[in-house]
Design a protein that fits this description.
Layout: E1 2-13, E2 22-28, E3 35-40, H1 44-57, E4 61-67, E5 80-87
Parallel strand pairs: 3-5
Antiparallel strand pairs: 1-2, 1-4, 2-3, 4-5
Length: 94
């Protein structure tokens, strides 16, 4: 598995029993030509909290994404969000 940081540009609400919770972050590829969805590796309770605050706390932040490989378009295959890092420039990363 590989991992890299991608910018969060949007979010999608979960469906069914996950309504009212974060279903996935929408991230953009490194060249900013494509977007893709990433399910965060979080508990249901964390996803509910994240959905309420995603615009204020997550848009524009870097998300560490674990994936198998990149497609020809630079989209990660089988992506899982591991950690929201902070500002894209990395200045506030711990």
């Amino acid at each position: 598995m590989r991992d890299d940081e991608f910018v969060i540009v949007d979010a999608v609400e979960g469906k069914g029993k996950w309504k009212g919770a974060l279903g996935a972050f929408v991230c953009q590829t490194k060249d900013a030509k494509n977007t893709f969805t990433v399910t965060p590796a979080s508990s249901d309770a964390e996803k509910k909290k994240m959905w309420k605050t995603w615009q204020a706390n997550y848009v524009g932040k870097a998300l560490t994404v674990q994936y198998q490989e990149l497609t020809a378009d630079g989209i990660p295959r089988f992506p899982v969000g591991k950690c929201v890092r902070g500002e894209v420039d990395g200045k506030d990363w711990i």
